[in-house]
Task: structure prediction
Amino acid sequence: MVHPPAQAGSAATSSAKDAGKVSWYKAIMADVLSDPLAWRRLKAPSLAAIEVLAGEVFRHLPKRFRELCTDLVIRVDDFPSDEVLRAMHAESEFDLLGLFHGVGLPFRSEFAPVQMPNMIWLYRRPILDYWTEHDEELGDIVKHVLVHEIGHHFGLSDAQMAAIEQSAEHAKGVTS
Result:
């Protein structure tokens, strides 16, 4: 589980562990680039590796953005549950890359007796499957899914986020 900004334990210990995993991954990738046969030693990123990546992505989001996510819990699982797949009318366990569960910030009530924290799930296997089929970096995919699900935490619908993304792409094309 990734719980922004750090999990249990001291921040220094957690950061040191994360930095060690990131350094290890960079070293492996450097070997792969210099020696194509180095791929034989590589395995798909584990749940823990995706958690580290999600944590790094989260830590690099703008501060104001992160401040609005203090009660947000981010978890990584291999696949969505059967219950989630049925509720989302998914045809396959690979259809969902992530999921927001909770009440968006604009819709929360201070008068509710007990509020569970909002949660985001990132689904490792569907994310990895998407990665293998598209010319995108894994970190960019995790970032896109995480930011999309955080958008739901902020109360945005899929349609609103699609419009924002389309506007951003249009602006990027105009300025390029």
